[in-house]
Amino acid sequence: MNDKTVGLILKEQDYRESSVILTVLTKEYGKISLVAQSARKMTSKNRGSILPYTKGEFFFDFKETRTMFRLKTAHTIEMYRYLHEDLNASLAIAVIAEVMDAFLLESADFELSSHFYELFEEACTALNERHRADIVLAVTLADLLDVQGIGPDVDECVLCGNTNVAAISVRDGGFLCADCAAGHGVSLNDLSSLRAFRLINKAKLAHCSILEEHMDSAMETCTLLVEFLRQHAGLSVRSFPLFQQMFQV
Ligand SMILES: [Zn+2]
């Protein structure tokens, strides 16, 4: 069956001599792989339309039993130009794409992949609109953890329910009060760290402008959320250290 779908490119890998495999997030089919044959040749008609972190329209042969298809043609719908020109933004979207790719098995949970589609599109748009990359990344990671049911508890001490919190414990899954932190050998965090961590975990990408007004940096929160992914989802995010190293306000 000849099919057409709109999708967001999460990843591109070289395949054989001159082809590439695209990992594409779609609304209709979840996460699919499209083989773009000879796409690395100068003469390929698809060459300019298969850039990661862009939104495109793809024509391919759909077969129910498969998750990998041969791409016929593609054209870009949304390039997100600034996202690709800005180092902070492009490194942040790489982290988001890596985490989403890891969480989504091929043609897996439809509800999850359609949520990821919306979230990825929102994150690309926010970065392209020049919202701060540390904030966009932190809010998106918090959302991804939340959807997986492993989001940090930021309302009270996770161990005793005390609302007077003093520390963030990745191992325990959120805030701790001073007593529980002492009991668990967790060092205390200052008020601004606690506040930033709570705000990010409560926020949506639509709140970027407000967060930017109230927060000097979301990098500490990003680092904690990446550690949540490692400890609670067994995911070590390979692209994060580069973001951490290169990010500049
Ligand atoms: Zn406690």
Protein architecture, described:
The protein is an alpha+beta fold and 249 residues long. The chain folds into 2 domains: 2-79, Nucleic acid-binding proteins (OB fold (Dihydrolipoamide Acetyltransferase, E2P), Beta Barrel), CATH 2.40.50.140; 82-246, Up-down Bundle (de novo design (two linked rop proteins)), CATH 1.20.1440. It is 41% helix and 22% strand. The protein contains 9 helices and 7 strands, in the order βββββααααββααααα. The protein has helices at 81-85, 87-103, 110-128, 133-147, 178-183, 191-202, 208-214, 219-233, 240-246; strands at 2-15, 19-26, 30-36, 55-61, 68-78, 165-169, 174-177. The strands form 2 sheets. Strands 1-2-3-5-4 form a 5-stranded mixed β-barrel. The protein has a two-stranded antiparallel ribbon with strand order 6-7. The longest helix is centred in the middle third of the chain and has 19 residues, at 110-128. The model has no long low-confidence stretch (mean pLDDT 94).
Class from secondary-structure proportions: alpha+beta
Number of domains: 2
Q: What is the CATH architecture term of the largest domain?
A: Up-down Bundle
Q: Describe the sheet with the most strands.
A: 5 strands, mixed, barrel
- As a percent range, the share of helical residues equals 40-55%
Give the strand order, joined by hyphens, for the main sheet. 1-2-3-5-4
Radius of gyration, Cα only, in angstroms? 20 Å
Q: What is the chains' assembly state?
A: single chain
SSE string, helices as H and strands as E: EEEEEHHHHEEHHHHH
Distance between the termini: 49 Å
Uncertain parts: none
- Give the class-level CATH name of the largest domain: Mainly Alpha
Shape: elongated
CATH fold-type name of the largest domain:
de novo design (two linked rop proteins)
